[in-house]
Amino acid sequence: MTKLTRNLISSIVFFLISLLLVSCSATNATSRIRSRHRPCKRLVFYFHDILYNGHNARNATSAIVGAPAWGNTTILAGQNHHFGNVVVFDDPITLDHNLHSTPVGRAQGFYLYDNKEIFTSWLGFSFVFNSTQHKGSINFAGADPLMNKTRDISVIGGTGDFFMSRGVATLMTDAFEGEVYFRLRVDVKLYECWS
Amino acid sequence: MTKLTRNLISSIVFFLISLLLVSCSATNATSRIRSRHRPCKRLVFYFHDILYNGHNARNATSAIVGAPAWGNTTILAGQNHHFGNVVVFDDPITLDHNLHSTPVGRAQGFYLYDNKEIFTSWLGFSFVFNSTQHKGSINFAGADPLMNKTRDISVIGGTGDFFMSRGVATLMTDAFEGEVYFRLRVDVKLYECWS
Amino acid sequence: MTKLTRNLISSIVFFLISLLLVSCSATNATSRIRSRHRPCKRLVFYFHDILYNGHNARNATSAIVGAPAWGNTTILAGQNHHFGNVVVFDDPITLDHNLHSTPVGRAQGFYLYDNKEIFTSWLGFSFVFNSTQHKGSINFAGADPLMNKTRDISVIGGTGDFFMSRGVATLMTDAFEGEVYFRLRVDVKLYECWS
Protein backbone atom coordinates (compact mmCIF):
# COMPACT_ATOMS: atom_id res chain seq x y z
CA MET A 1 0.00 0.00 0.00
CA THR A 2 1.37 3.39 -0.92
CA LYS A 3 1.67 6.23 1.57
CA LEU A 4 -0.88 8.15 -0.48
CA THR A 5 -3.44 5.37 -0.04
CA ARG A 6 -2.88 5.27 3.69
CA ASN A 7 -3.36 9.02 4.01
CA LEU A 8 -6.46 8.93 1.92
CA ILE A 9 -7.97 6.21 4.08
CA SER A 10 -7.16 8.15 7.25
CA SER A 11 -8.90 11.22 5.91
CA ILE A 12 -11.94 9.21 4.97
CA VAL A 13 -12.11 7.67 8.43
CA PHE A 14 -11.96 11.06 10.09
CA PHE A 15 -14.49 12.58 7.70
CA LEU A 16 -16.90 9.72 8.21
CA ILE A 17 -16.74 9.85 11.98
CA SER A 18 -17.35 13.59 12.00
CA LEU A 19 -20.13 13.45 9.47
CA LEU A 20 -22.01 10.64 11.13
CA LEU A 21 -21.70 11.92 14.65
CA VAL A 22 -23.30 15.12 13.41
CA SER A 23 -26.04 13.16 11.67
CA CYS A 24 -26.82 11.24 14.80
CA SER A 25 -27.30 14.27 16.97
CA ALA A 26 -29.24 16.06 14.25
CA THR A 27 -31.75 13.22 14.19
CA ASN A 28 -32.42 13.99 17.80
CA ALA A 29 -32.91 17.65 16.89
CA THR A 30 -33.31 20.06 19.78
CA SER A 31 -30.42 19.57 22.14
CA ARG A 32 -31.92 17.22 24.65
CA ILE A 33 -29.63 15.85 27.28
CA ARG A 34 -31.17 12.83 28.94
CA SER A 35 -29.80 11.24 32.03
CA ARG A 36 -31.50 10.04 35.15
CA HIS A 37 -28.52 11.11 37.17
CA ARG A 38 -28.05 14.64 35.92
CA PRO A 39 -31.03 16.98 35.39
CA CYS A 40 -30.70 19.27 32.36
CA LYS A 41 -32.05 22.10 34.51
CA ARG A 42 -32.43 22.49 38.25
CA LEU A 43 -34.20 25.23 40.17
CA VAL A 44 -35.06 25.62 43.85
CA PHE A 45 -37.99 27.75 44.99
CA TYR A 46 -40.12 28.27 48.07
CA PHE A 47 -43.80 28.96 48.08
CA HIS A 48 -45.96 30.22 50.89
CA ASP A 49 -49.57 29.24 51.56
CA ILE A 50 -51.79 31.22 53.94
CA LEU A 51 -55.15 29.49 54.22
CA TYR A 52 -58.32 31.53 54.70
CA ASN A 53 -59.83 30.68 58.10
CA GLY A 54 -62.62 33.22 58.43
CA HIS A 55 -60.42 35.91 60.02
CA ASN A 56 -57.58 36.58 57.57
CA ALA A 57 -59.30 37.62 54.35
CA ARG A 58 -56.63 40.22 53.60
CA ASN A 59 -53.56 38.03 53.92
CA ALA A 60 -54.98 34.69 52.83
CA THR A 61 -53.52 33.30 49.60
CA SER A 62 -55.72 30.20 49.53
CA ALA A 63 -59.26 29.15 50.39
CA ILE A 64 -61.20 25.95 50.98
CA VAL A 65 -63.60 25.52 48.06
CA GLY A 66 -64.75 21.94 48.49
CA ALA A 67 -65.63 19.87 51.54
CA PRO A 68 -67.30 16.55 52.25
CA ALA A 69 -70.81 16.31 53.72
CA TRP A 70 -69.36 16.39 57.25
CA GLY A 71 -67.24 19.50 56.63
CA ASN A 72 -67.54 23.11 55.51
CA THR A 73 -65.52 25.66 53.58
CA THR A 74 -64.45 27.86 56.49
CA ILE A 75 -62.43 25.38 58.53
CA LEU A 76 -60.53 22.25 57.44
CA ALA A 77 -62.55 19.16 58.35
CA GLY A 78 -61.57 18.24 61.90
CA GLN A 79 -62.05 14.52 61.54
CA ASN A 80 -60.53 12.15 58.94
CA HIS A 81 -57.39 14.26 58.46
CA HIS A 82 -59.18 16.88 56.35
CA PHE A 83 -60.25 14.15 53.91
CA GLY A 84 -62.21 15.72 51.07
CA ASN A 85 -61.15 19.34 51.57
CA VAL A 86 -60.25 21.04 48.30
CA VAL A 87 -58.14 24.20 48.45
CA VAL A 88 -57.50 26.72 45.65
CA PHE A 89 -54.32 28.76 45.98
CA ASP A 90 -52.40 31.66 44.50
CA ASP A 91 -49.18 31.63 46.51
CA PRO A 92 -46.10 33.83 46.19
CA ILE A 93 -42.89 32.08 45.09
CA THR A 94 -39.64 33.28 46.65
CA LEU A 95 -36.00 32.35 46.25
CA ASP A 96 -35.44 32.06 49.99
CA HIS A 97 -37.35 31.14 53.16
CA ASN A 98 -38.70 34.62 53.78
CA LEU A 99 -42.41 35.15 53.13
CA HIS A 100 -41.69 38.84 52.67
CA SER A 101 -38.97 38.49 50.04
CA THR A 102 -39.89 39.89 46.63
CA PRO A 103 -41.87 37.15 44.86
CA VAL A 104 -40.34 35.84 41.62
CA GLY A 105 -43.60 34.25 40.51
CA ARG A 106 -46.88 32.70 41.66
CA ALA A 107 -47.81 29.11 42.43
CA GLN A 108 -51.40 28.71 41.23
CA GLY A 109 -53.75 25.76 41.30
CA PHE A 110 -55.30 23.44 43.84
CA TYR A 111 -54.64 20.73 46.37
CA LEU A 112 -56.99 18.32 48.05
CA TYR A 113 -56.72 16.14 51.13
CA ASP A 114 -57.34 12.54 50.14
CA ASN A 115 -56.64 10.23 53.04
CA LYS A 116 -58.67 9.46 56.16
CA GLU A 117 -55.80 7.91 58.17
CA ILE A 118 -52.88 10.27 57.61
CA PHE A 119 -52.32 13.66 55.98
CA THR A 120 -51.96 13.12 52.28
CA SER A 121 -52.79 15.49 49.46
CA TRP A 122 -52.98 15.58 45.68
CA LEU A 123 -51.72 18.64 43.82
CA GLY A 124 -52.38 20.14 40.41
CA PHE A 125 -50.73 23.52 39.93
CA SER A 126 -48.39 25.75 37.94
CA PHE A 127 -45.46 27.99 38.69
CA VAL A 128 -46.12 31.15 36.69
CA PHE A 129 -43.16 33.44 36.00
CA ASN A 130 -43.10 36.80 34.31
CA SER A 131 -39.84 38.45 35.30
CA THR A 132 -36.59 39.29 33.58
CA GLN A 133 -35.18 36.05 35.01
CA HIS A 134 -37.91 33.60 33.97
CA LYS A 135 -40.87 33.87 31.62
CA GLY A 136 -43.31 31.03 31.23
CA SER A 137 -44.81 28.31 33.35
CA ILE A 138 -44.03 24.91 34.83
CA ASN A 139 -46.95 22.52 35.35
CA PHE A 140 -47.05 19.97 38.17
CA ALA A 141 -49.27 17.06 39.22
CA GLY A 142 -48.99 14.29 41.73
CA ALA A 143 -49.54 12.76 45.13
CA ASP A 144 -48.01 14.46 48.16
CA PRO A 145 -47.79 12.23 51.26
CA LEU A 146 -47.00 15.32 53.26
CA MET A 147 -45.89 13.68 56.49
CA ASN A 148 -42.81 12.35 54.66
CA LYS A 149 -39.76 14.58 54.88
CA THR A 150 -39.45 14.71 51.09
CA ARG A 151 -41.79 13.50 48.37
CA ASP A 152 -41.72 13.60 44.59
CA ILE A 153 -44.36 14.83 42.18
CA SER A 154 -44.21 15.06 38.38
CA VAL A 155 -43.39 18.02 36.17
CA ILE A 156 -45.90 17.31 33.41
CA GLY A 157 -45.10 20.16 31.04
CA GLY A 158 -44.05 23.73 30.63
CA THR A 159 -44.32 26.80 28.45
CA GLY A 160 -42.10 29.78 27.55
CA ASP A 161 -38.63 29.33 29.08
CA PHE A 162 -39.79 25.90 30.23
CA PHE A 163 -41.24 24.85 26.87
CA MET A 164 -42.04 21.10 26.83
CA SER A 165 -40.20 20.45 30.11
CA ARG A 166 -40.62 17.21 31.99
CA GLY A 167 -39.12 16.10 35.27
CA VAL A 168 -39.61 15.54 38.94
CA ALA A 169 -40.07 18.06 41.75
CA THR A 170 -39.05 17.15 45.28
CA LEU A 171 -41.27 18.82 47.88
CA MET A 172 -40.25 19.47 51.46
CA THR A 173 -42.39 21.16 54.11
CA ASP A 174 -39.99 23.83 55.21
CA ALA A 175 -42.22 25.31 57.91
CA PHE A 176 -45.82 25.35 59.06
CA GLU A 177 -47.90 27.17 61.64
CA GLY A 178 -51.00 25.30 62.74
CA GLU A 179 -53.46 25.01 59.90
CA VAL A 180 -52.99 28.51 58.55
CA TYR A 181 -49.49 28.79 57.10
CA PHE A 182 -47.09 26.42 55.41
CA ARG A 183 -43.98 26.92 53.33
CA LEU A 184 -42.94 24.37 50.74
CA ARG A 185 -39.44 24.01 49.35
CA VAL A 186 -39.64 22.83 45.75
CA ASP A 187 -36.56 21.36 44.13
CA VAL A 188 -37.43 21.29 40.41
CA LYS A 189 -35.32 18.82 38.45
CA LEU A 190 -35.97 18.79 34.72
CA TYR A 191 -34.79 15.76 32.76
CA GLU A 192 -36.26 16.82 29.43
CA CYS A 193 -35.25 20.27 28.29
CA TRP A 194 -35.97 21.79 24.91
CA SER A 195 -33.65 24.63 24.11
CA MET B 1 -3.34 3.72 -5.83
CA THR B 2 -5.17 1.92 -8.59
CA LYS B 3 -8.47 3.08 -10.02
CA LEU B 4 -10.09 -0.06 -8.62
CA THR B 5 -8.99 0.81 -5.08
CA ARG B 6 -10.38 4.32 -5.41
CA ASN B 7 -13.72 3.02 -6.63
CA LEU B 8 -13.90 0.49 -3.82
CA ILE B 9 -13.23 3.14 -1.21
CA SER B 10 -15.91 5.41 -2.70
CA SER B 11 -18.43 2.61 -2.55
CA ILE B 12 -17.55 1.87 1.05
CA VAL B 13 -17.92 5.51 2.00
CA PHE B 14 -21.37 5.70 0.42
CA PHE B 15 -22.47 2.41 1.94
CA LEU B 16 -21.30 3.45 5.40
CA ILE B 17 -23.06 6.78 5.31
CA SER B 18 -26.31 5.17 4.21
CA LEU B 19 -26.11 2.37 6.72
CA LEU B 20 -25.29 4.53 9.67
CA LEU B 21 -27.85 7.22 8.96
CA VAL B 22 -30.44 4.47 8.91
CA SER B 23 -29.12 3.07 12.19
CA CYS B 24 -29.33 6.44 13.85
CA SER B 25 -32.94 7.04 12.99
CA ALA B 26 -33.87 3.45 13.83
CA THR B 27 -32.54 3.96 17.34
CA ASN B 28 -35.15 6.64 17.71
CA ALA B 29 -37.84 4.21 16.54
CA THR B 30 -41.30 5.63 16.03
CA SER B 31 -41.06 8.47 13.57
CA ARG B 32 -40.77 11.38 15.94
CA ILE B 33 -39.93 14.71 14.45
CA ARG B 34 -38.76 17.06 17.13
CA SER B 35 -38.28 20.72 16.59
CA ARG B 36 -39.27 23.66 18.69
CA HIS B 37 -39.94 25.63 15.58
CA ARG B 38 -42.16 23.23 13.66
CA PRO B 39 -44.94 21.28 15.38
CA CYS B 40 -45.43 17.72 14.08
CA LYS B 41 -49.18 18.33 14.19
CA ARG B 42 -51.24 21.47 14.44
CA LEU B 43 -54.99 21.82 14.95
CA VAL B 44 -57.19 24.82 15.65
CA PHE B 45 -60.51 24.47 17.46
CA TYR B 46 -63.06 26.65 19.25
CA PHE B 47 -64.97 25.68 22.32
CA HIS B 48 -68.01 27.32 23.82
CA ASP B 49 -68.80 27.59 27.52
CA ILE B 50 -72.26 28.54 28.77
CA LEU B 51 -72.18 28.82 32.55
CA TYR B 52 -75.23 27.86 34.60
CA ASN B 53 -76.53 30.97 36.39
CA GLY B 54 -79.79 29.75 37.90
CA HIS B 55 -81.89 30.58 34.83
CA ASN B 56 -80.38 28.66 31.92
CA ALA B 57 -80.48 25.01 32.99
CA ARG B 58 -81.32 23.86 29.47
CA ASN B 59 -78.53 25.58 27.59
CA ALA B 60 -75.82 25.60 30.22
CA THR B 61 -72.75 23.50 29.40
CA SER B 62 -70.96 24.19 32.69
CA ALA B 63 -71.75 24.70 36.36
CA ILE B 64 -70.08 26.08 39.45
CA VAL B 65 -69.34 23.15 41.76
CA GLY B 66 -66.99 24.70 44.29
CA ALA B 67 -66.91 28.08 46.00
CA PRO B 68 -65.08 29.68 48.91
CA ALA B 69 -66.79 30.42 52.22
CA TRP B 70 -67.85 33.85 50.96
CA GLY B 71 -69.38 32.51 47.73
CA ASN B 72 -71.99 30.05 46.48
CA THR B 73 -72.52 27.72 43.55
CA THR B 74 -75.21 29.71 41.75
CA ILE B 75 -73.28 32.89 40.97
CA LEU B 76 -69.55 33.47 40.50
CA ALA B 77 -68.11 35.09 43.62
CA GLY B 78 -68.53 38.84 43.18
CA GLN B 79 -65.46 39.85 45.16
CA ASN B 80 -61.86 38.71 44.68
CA HIS B 81 -62.24 38.07 40.95
CA HIS B 82 -64.15 34.80 41.45
CA PHE B 83 -61.24 33.45 43.52
CA GLY B 84 -62.03 29.89 44.58
CA ASN B 85 -64.85 29.16 42.15
CA VAL B 86 -64.51 25.73 40.56
CA VAL B 87 -66.43 25.07 37.34
CA VAL B 88 -67.07 21.70 35.67
CA PHE B 89 -67.75 21.81 31.93
CA ASP B 90 -68.79 19.75 28.95
CA ASP B 91 -68.47 22.19 26.09
CA PRO B 92 -69.02 21.65 22.35
CA ILE B 93 -65.92 21.95 20.14
CA THR B 94 -66.40 23.52 16.72
CA LEU B 95 -64.14 24.21 13.78
CA ASP B 96 -65.29 27.81 13.45
CA HIS B 97 -66.60 30.67 15.63
CA ASN B 98 -70.22 29.61 15.44
CA LEU B 99 -71.73 28.12 18.60
CA HIS B 100 -74.33 26.42 16.42
CA SER B 101 -71.91 24.71 14.03
CA THR B 102 -71.93 20.92 14.22
CA PRO B 103 -69.64 19.99 17.11
CA VAL B 104 -66.61 17.86 16.21
CA GLY B 105 -66.01 16.83 19.81
CA ARG B 106 -66.43 17.84 23.45
CA ALA B 107 -64.12 19.75 25.79
CA GLN B 108 -64.60 18.12 29.20
CA GLY B 109 -63.04 18.85 32.55
CA PHE B 110 -62.78 21.74 34.98
CA TYR B 111 -61.39 25.21 35.54
CA LEU B 112 -60.99 27.19 38.71
CA TYR B 113 -60.40 30.86 39.43
CA ASP B 114 -57.24 31.24 41.45
CA ASN B 115 -56.32 34.88 41.82
CA LYS B 116 -57.75 37.59 44.03
CA GLU B 117 -56.29 40.55 42.11
CA ILE B 118 -56.93 39.70 38.47
CA PHE B 119 -58.84 37.04 36.54
CA THR B 120 -56.66 33.97 36.35
CA SER B 121 -57.70 30.36 36.07
CA TRP B 122 -56.24 26.88 36.14
CA LEU B 123 -57.49 24.26 33.70
CA GLY B 124 -57.52 20.47 33.62
CA PHE B 125 -59.50 19.06 30.71
CA SER B 126 -59.62 16.88 27.62
CA PHE B 127 -60.73 17.25 24.04
CA VAL B 128 -62.72 14.11 23.30
CA PHE B 129 -63.23 13.18 19.65
CA ASN B 130 -65.26 10.36 18.17
CA SER B 131 -65.86 11.26 14.54
CA THR B 132 -64.63 10.02 11.20
CA GLN B 133 -62.06 12.81 11.28
CA HIS B 134 -60.57 12.28 14.75
CA LYS B 135 -60.88 9.48 17.30
CA GLY B 136 -59.25 9.75 20.69
CA SER B 137 -58.47 12.44 23.21
CA ILE B 138 -56.01 15.22 23.94
CA ASN B 139 -55.32 16.04 27.60
CA PHE B 140 -54.46 19.54 28.79
CA ALA B 141 -53.33 21.19 32.02
CA GLY B 142 -52.01 24.58 32.95
CA ALA B 143 -52.42 28.12 34.16
CA ASP B 144 -54.55 30.51 32.13
CA PRO B 145 -53.96 34.20 32.91
CA LEU B 146 -57.09 34.96 30.95
CA MET B 147 -56.70 38.72 30.69
CA ASN B 148 -53.70 38.18 28.40
CA LYS B 149 -54.53 38.12 24.70
CA THR B 150 -52.90 34.71 24.31
CA ARG B 151 -51.58 32.25 26.87
CA ASP B 152 -50.01 28.81 26.69
CA ILE B 153 -50.97 25.66 28.53
CA SER B 154 -49.47 22.17 28.23
CA VAL B 155 -50.66 19.21 26.23
CA ILE B 156 -49.79 16.50 28.75
CA GLY B 157 -50.84 13.41 26.81
CA GLY B 158 -53.24 11.87 24.38
CA THR B 159 -54.94 8.67 23.29
CA GLY B 160 -56.19 7.15 20.04
CA ASP B 161 -55.22 9.38 17.09
CA PHE B 162 -53.31 11.51 19.58
CA PHE B 163 -51.51 8.60 21.27
CA MET B 164 -48.69 9.85 23.54
CA SER B 165 -48.90 13.41 22.20
CA ARG B 166 -47.19 16.28 23.96
CA GLY B 167 -47.13 19.94 23.11
CA VAL B 168 -48.41 23.38 23.86
CA ALA B 169 -51.87 24.86 23.29
CA THR B 170 -52.27 28.58 22.81
CA LEU B 171 -55.57 29.87 24.18
CA MET B 172 -57.28 33.05 23.05
CA THR B 173 -60.59 34.39 24.34
CA ASP B 174 -62.41 34.81 21.09
CA ALA B 175 -65.60 36.23 22.58
CA PHE B 176 -67.43 36.57 25.85
CA GLU B 177 -70.80 37.79 27.06
CA GLY B 178 -70.87 38.91 30.67
CA GLU B 179 -70.32 35.98 32.97
CA VAL B 180 -72.45 33.53 31.06
CA TYR B 181 -70.78 32.79 27.73
CA PHE B 182 -67.22 32.63 26.50
CA ARG B 183 -65.61 31.15 23.42
CA LEU B 184 -61.99 30.01 23.48
CA ARG B 185 -59.83 29.56 20.42
CA VAL B 186 -57.37 26.73 21.02
CA ASP B 187 -54.32 26.42 18.78
CA VAL B 188 -53.01 22.93 19.54
CA LYS B 189 -49.35 22.51 18.59
CA LEU B 190 -47.96 19.04 19.13
CA TYR B 191 -44.18 18.65 19.27
CA GLU B 192 -44.15 14.95 20.10
CA CYS B 193 -46.15 12.78 17.74
CA TRP B 194 -46.20 9.00 17.70
CA SER B 195 -47.32 7.66 14.38
CA MET C 1 -5.01 -3.58 -4.71
CA THR C 2 -2.92 -5.68 -2.36
CA LYS C 3 -4.42 -8.13 0.12
CA LEU C 4 -3.11 -5.96 2.96
CA THR C 5 -5.06 -2.96 1.71
CA ARG C 6 -8.22 -5.00 1.43
CA ASN C 7 -7.87 -6.26 5.01
CA LEU C 8 -7.16 -2.80 6.31
CA ILE C 9 -10.25 -1.43 4.65
CA SER C 10 -12.38 -4.26 6.06
CA SER C 11 -11.14 -3.51 9.57
CA ILE C 12 -11.88 0.15 9.17
CA VAL C 13 -15.38 -0.58 7.95
CA PHE C 14 -16.08 -2.79 10.97
CA PHE C 15 -14.53 -0.32 13.40
CA LEU C 16 -16.54 2.54 11.98
CA ILE C 17 -19.84 0.73 12.11
CA SER C 18 -19.24 -0.30 15.72
CA LEU C 19 -18.07 3.11 16.81
CA LEU C 20 -20.89 4.99 15.22
CA LEU C 21 -23.65 2.70 16.33
CA VAL C 22 -22.40 3.21 19.86
CA SER C 23 -22.33 6.98 19.35
CA CYS C 24 -25.90 6.97 18.10
CA SER C 25 -27.34 5.15 21.06
CA ALA C 26 -25.24 7.15 23.49
CA THR C 27 -26.83 10.33 22.20
CA ASN C 28 -30.13 8.87 23.29
CA ALA C 29 -28.68 8.11 26.74
CA THR C 30 -30.94 6.29 29.19
CA SER C 31 -32.14 3.06 27.69
CA ARG C 32 -35.45 4.10 26.29
CA ILE C 33 -37.27 1.62 24.14
CA ARG C 34 -39.93 3.30 22.10
CA SER C 35 -42.54 1.48 20.14
CA ARG C 36 -46.24 2.06 19.82
CA HIS C 37 -46.78 -1.65 19.54
CA ARG C 38 -44.82 -2.89 22.52
CA PRO C 39 -44.98 -1.12 25.90
CA CYS C 40 -41.67 -1.03 27.78
CA LYS C 41 -43.59 -1.87 30.96
CA ARG C 42 -47.05 -3.25 31.53
CA LEU C 43 -48.93 -3.64 34.82
CA VAL C 44 -52.52 -4.59 35.59
CA PHE C 45 -54.22 -3.46 38.79
CA TYR C 46 -57.70 -3.17 40.25
CA PHE C 47 -58.93 -0.40 42.44
CA HIS C 48 -62.03 -0.27 44.57
CA ASP C 49 -64.14 2.81 45.24
CA ILE C 50 -66.73 2.91 48.04
CA LEU C 51 -68.55 6.23 47.92
CA TYR C 52 -69.75 7.86 51.13
CA ASN C 53 -73.56 8.05 51.07
CA GLY C 54 -74.39 9.21 54.57
CA HIS C 55 -74.51 5.73 56.08
CA ASN C 56 -71.13 4.13 55.43
CA ALA C 57 -68.62 6.47 57.05
CA ARG C 58 -66.46 3.58 58.24
CA ASN C 59 -66.05 1.76 54.94
CA ALA C 60 -66.21 4.66 52.51
CA THR C 61 -63.01 5.33 50.56
CA SER C 62 -64.35 8.37 48.71
CA ALA C 63 -66.62 11.34 49.30
CA ILE C 64 -68.49 13.92 47.25
CA VAL C 65 -66.78 17.27 47.84
CA GLY C 66 -68.29 19.40 45.11
CA ALA C 67 -71.79 19.67 43.68
CA PRO C 68 -73.69 22.04 41.41
CA ALA C 69 -76.34 24.42 42.75
CA TRP C 70 -79.02 21.74 42.25
CA GLY C 71 -77.10 19.06 44.15
CA ASN C 72 -75.48 18.38 47.51
CA THR C 73 -72.49 16.52 48.89
CA THR C 74 -74.33 13.60 50.49
CA ILE C 75 -75.93 12.04 47.40
CA LEU C 76 -74.85 12.13 43.77
CA ALA C 77 -77.00 14.61 41.85
CA GLY C 78 -80.05 12.68 40.68
CA GLN C 79 -80.61 14.67 37.51
CA ASN C 80 -78.17 15.37 34.66
CA HIS C 81 -76.17 12.17 35.21
CA HIS C 82 -74.39 13.54 38.30
CA PHE C 83 -73.08 16.47 36.24
CA GLY C 84 -70.92 18.64 38.47
CA ASN C 85 -70.27 16.18 41.28
CA VAL C 86 -66.65 16.12 42.36
CA VAL C 87 -65.41 13.10 44.32
CA VAL C 88 -62.14 12.76 46.26
CA PHE C 89 -60.88 9.23 46.76
CA ASP C 90 -58.27 7.13 48.50
CA ASP C 91 -58.95 3.66 47.14
CA PRO C 92 -57.09 0.39 47.80
CA ILE C 93 -55.26 -1.11 44.81
CA THR C 94 -55.26 -4.91 44.54
CA LEU C 95 -53.75 -7.38 42.12
CA ASP C 96 -57.00 -9.29 41.68
CA HIS C 97 -60.78 -8.68 41.74
CA ASN C 98 -61.15 -9.14 45.47
CA LEU C 99 -61.82 -6.00 47.52
CA HIS C 100 -60.43 -7.81 50.54
CA SER C 101 -57.11 -8.85 49.00
CA THR C 102 -54.07 -7.23 50.59
CA PRO C 103 -53.69 -3.80 48.94
CA VAL C 104 -50.44 -3.24 47.05
CA GLY C 105 -50.92 0.53 47.00
CA ARG C 106 -53.47 3.34 47.03
CA ALA C 107 -55.21 5.17 44.19
CA GLN C 108 -55.50 8.78 45.35
CA GLY C 109 -56.99 11.83 43.70
CA PHE C 110 -60.31 12.95 42.32
CA TYR C 111 -62.90 12.40 39.64
CA LEU C 112 -65.75 14.59 38.51
CA TYR C 113 -68.88 13.93 36.47
CA ASP C 114 -68.91 16.23 33.47
CA ASN C 115 -71.74 15.35 31.14
CA LYS C 116 -75.46 16.03 31.37
CA GLU C 117 -76.55 13.44 28.79
CA ILE C 118 -74.51 10.35 29.66
CA PHE C 119 -72.18 9.24 32.44
CA THR C 120 -68.76 10.68 31.73
CA SER C 121 -66.05 11.62 34.15
CA TRP C 122 -62.66 13.28 34.26
CA LEU C 123 -59.91 11.86 36.43
CA GLY C 124 -56.76 13.23 38.03
CA PHE C 125 -55.07 10.76 40.36
CA SER C 126 -51.98 8.79 41.32
CA PHE C 127 -51.16 5.21 42.09
CA VAL C 128 -48.96 5.36 45.20
CA PHE C 129 -46.82 2.32 45.98
CA ASN C 130 -44.61 1.67 48.95
CA SER C 131 -44.00 -2.06 49.06
CA THR C 132 -41.09 -4.37 48.40
CA GLN C 133 -42.50 -4.86 44.90
CA HIS C 134 -42.99 -1.24 43.84
CA LYS C 135 -41.88 2.07 45.32
CA GLY C 136 -42.99 5.34 43.78
CA SER C 137 -46.00 6.74 42.01
CA ILE C 138 -47.71 6.81 38.63
CA ASN C 139 -49.70 9.92 37.74
CA PHE C 140 -52.80 9.82 35.53
CA ALA C 141 -55.13 12.33 33.88
CA GLY C 142 -57.85 12.12 31.30
CA ALA C 143 -61.44 11.77 30.23
CA ASP C 144 -63.32 8.62 31.16
CA PRO C 145 -66.49 8.01 29.11
CA LEU C 146 -67.42 5.35 31.61
CA MET C 147 -70.28 3.73 29.70
CA ASN C 148 -67.76 2.45 27.14
CA LYS C 149 -66.41 -1.02 27.85
CA THR C 150 -62.82 0.24 27.76
CA ARG C 151 -61.42 3.75 27.61
CA ASP C 152 -57.93 5.21 27.60
CA ILE C 153 -56.46 7.92 29.81
CA SER C 154 -52.90 9.27 29.90
CA VAL C 155 -50.02 8.37 32.17
CA ILE C 156 -48.56 11.86 32.54
CA GLY C 157 -45.56 11.08 34.74
CA GLY C 158 -44.12 9.01 37.51
CA THR C 159 -41.62 8.93 40.35
CA GLY C 160 -39.44 6.33 42.05
CA ASP C 161 -39.65 3.01 40.20
CA PHE C 162 -41.78 4.82 37.63
CA PHE C 163 -39.46 7.81 37.23
CA MET C 164 -40.43 9.93 34.19
CA SER C 165 -42.86 7.31 32.87
CA ARG C 166 -45.36 8.11 30.16
CA GLY C 167 -48.00 5.95 28.58
CA VAL C 168 -51.64 5.06 28.35
CA ALA C 169 -53.88 3.31 30.88
CA THR C 170 -56.90 1.37 29.69
CA LEU C 171 -59.75 1.48 32.19
CA MET C 172 -62.53 -1.09 32.41
CA THR C 173 -65.39 -1.06 34.89
CA ASP C 174 -65.01 -4.53 36.31
CA ALA C 175 -68.00 -4.35 38.66
CA PHE C 176 -70.34 -1.86 40.26
CA GLU C 177 -73.09 -1.92 42.86
CA GLY C 178 -75.61 0.89 42.53
CA GLU C 179 -73.98 4.21 43.28
CA VAL C 180 -71.90 3.03 46.20
CA TYR C 181 -69.25 0.63 44.91
CA PHE C 182 -67.28 0.27 41.71
CA ARG C 183 -64.16 -1.63 40.78
CA LEU C 184 -61.92 -0.44 37.97
CA ARG C 185 -59.44 -2.62 36.12
CA VAL C 186 -56.45 -0.52 35.07
CA ASP C 187 -54.14 -1.83 32.38
CA VAL C 188 -51.09 0.44 32.64
CA LYS C 189 -49.00 0.45 29.46
CA LEU C 190 -45.85 2.55 29.65
CA TYR C 191 -44.20 3.53 26.37
CA GLU C 192 -41.51 5.72 27.87
CA CYS C 193 -39.43 4.02 30.56
CA TRP C 194 -36.31 5.43 32.16
CA SER C 195 -34.22 2.75 33.71
From TrEMBL, chains A, B, C:
It holds the Pfam family Dirigent. It is found in: Secreted, Extracellular space, Apoplast. GO terms for cellular component: apoplast. GO terms for biological process: phenylpropanoid biosynthetic process. InterPro entries: Allene_oxi_cyc_Dirigent, Dirigent. Dirigent proteins impart stereoselectivity on the phenoxy radical-coupling reaction, yielding optically active lignans from two molecules of coniferyl alcohol in the biosynthesis of lignans, flavonolignans, and alkaloids and thus plays a central role in plant secondary metabolism. This is Dirigent protein.
